[in-house]
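Posting for a labmate who doesn't have an account.
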Amino acid sequence: MEVSDELPTSSTEMKIVVPGDYLGEGYVAGHGTFTDEGTGDIYASMAGVVHNIDRVICVRPVRSGYRPDIGDVVVGRVVSVD
């Protein structure tokens, strides 16, 4: 499978990367990425799909578990009361 060197420009295009893949330069490195301090180049630190939102490059894993964050509404079941 050959992947283009350009970042996705619309939500229908997907670029799948593996750790160490070059993502670009001149952007802000987000979750799932790291920056080469000397050159400013951004690389993937995990396998997943590249997302470019407001000049921030992120890599989201293809599969992951749900990780609640502050402000999320969660539903649960009470199994005992002490």
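Reply:
Got it, the structure tokens are right above this. The chain has a mean pLDDT of 84.
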